[in-house]
Amino acid sequence: MGGLEFKPWIGKAFLFLALSCPTAIVAAKHILCFEGMGTAISGGVVFRSETAVEKLANTTSVAVGMKGDGSGQPAYTISRVEPSEIEIDQLNMLTAHAVYRSREPLARMLCRLWNGGIDEEKVTRFKEIEGQGLVAAFQDGVIVAVGQRDFIERLGVVCPEPVEDASELMVTVNGKYAGRYLLERVVDSGFTNAVSELDALDIGRVVVVTDKASENSLAGLPGATELCVTDKNDTEGRFRDVVEMQLKGDKLTYIGDGVDDTKRMRKADSAIVLGNTDDKALRYADAVAADGSYRSAVGAVSAAREIKQKIFKCAFICLCIKAALLIFFAAWKYGAIVLLLSEIGLIIAAVVWARQLAADVDDVI
Fold first, then answer.
1. 29-72+188-304 fold
2. What pLDDT, in 10s, does the model give residues 46-79?
3. CA pair distance 242, 31, nearest whole angstrom
4. Cα 290 from Cα 307, distance rounded (Å)
5. Residue 253 to residue 180: CA distance in whole angstroms
6. Tens digit of each residue's pLDDT (9 = 90 or more) over 329-358
7. 115: phi then psi, degrees, rounded to nearest 5
8. Which alpha helices (H) appear in the chain, and where do they start and end?
9. Beta bridge pairs of residue 208
10. Which pLDDT score is estimated for 63?
11. What crossing angle do the helices spanning 23-42 and 335-358 adopt, rounded to 10°?
């Protein structure tokens, strides 16, 4: 038609479409991402999915719920025990047996106060509300409740006046107030080091979410760290202000360790939970720091950024190679065969290189 031969051009068009297909890039992306996620596990970081990696890689702001001390241990020490109409040893014994099944870090500390050993058969029934308190029924009919002031007061127990700027753990026996443990905030070097690492990652904004009793002990954190001091009557209001104060385009990651952090996780763009937490918190997590440390949580952000950076690097090199092959071989008589073989070779090379790049992810955790 009109002296034009369409057949060779149709063949070239199909060849161009075949070579333009980003098979090597897509294969390398998924391999690199999954290999990177597998490598991160050895460093104590478990990602939920590829999407979770991408979300954490885009982090520009971080909010940290301060409960642990950065090594998976409780952020408090018991500064004073105040029994009421009960011997202190009796209070410690009942409290230790009531809490020994709990996964809260403070439970281990309370168990250590009792030196008489734990009789696992002494408690017949146990119910815990994560982040609030628990109730335990003993063999002899004694009912012991241990928890925060609000939790104990909802049980209908009258508590003494609160100690100003102090955290408390209340204990009741058979529905009567039996004593309390006064807690003092401890900020371990593991936590401050984690905050320093966040600052080194050029995170635009780092906010530590804590309570009034812990405000003074967190003064002097490294970098331009902000404190979000929550009110016990409105624990979410101040954090809501943090979310609303984000700049357009900011991506907020929340780091928490319990069920009382789930509301904040849902408000953030992505979330990391510290290990040894409950299923409800895990439901909203994009990554888990398996060892329960803040350092591993920061490592999750670093690993996600490293994986994303290597994906872009691999994709750029693949595109350059494909463009060079098209330019040099497209007009050659046997160029079609060479290009198709080169495409296969490029896919294999991209996959092998992606696996090698993923092995470096562990170095940033």
1. Rossmann fold (3.40.50)
2. 998 889 999 999 998 888 887 544 444 446 788 8
3. 37
4. 19
5. 35
6. 665 655 566 666 777 777 777 777 777 766
7. -95, 0
8. 6-20, 23-42, 50-57, 88-99, 105-112, 149-154, 189-200, 237-244, 262-267, 279-283, 294-329, 335-358
9. 64, 227
10. 86
11. 10
Question: Could you give the residue range(s) of every CATH 3.40.1110.10 domain in the chain?
Answer: 76-185
* Other CB atoms within 10 Å distance of the CB of residue 270: 27
The pair of structure tokens assigned to 361 is: 């992810």
- In terms of CATH architecture, what is 76-185? 3-Layer(aba) Sandwich (3.40)
pTM over 0.85: no
Q: CA-based Rg of the chain, rounded to a whole angstrom?
A: 28
The pair of structure tokens assigned to 121 is 């058969």
**Where in the sequence of the chain do the CATH 3.40.50.1000 domains occur?**
29-72+188-304
Task: For residue range 70-104, list pLDDT tens digits in order.
Answer: 444 446 788 899 999 899 999 999 999 999 988 77
HEC string of 181-212 equals EEEEECCCHHHHHHHHHHHHCCCCEEEEEEEH
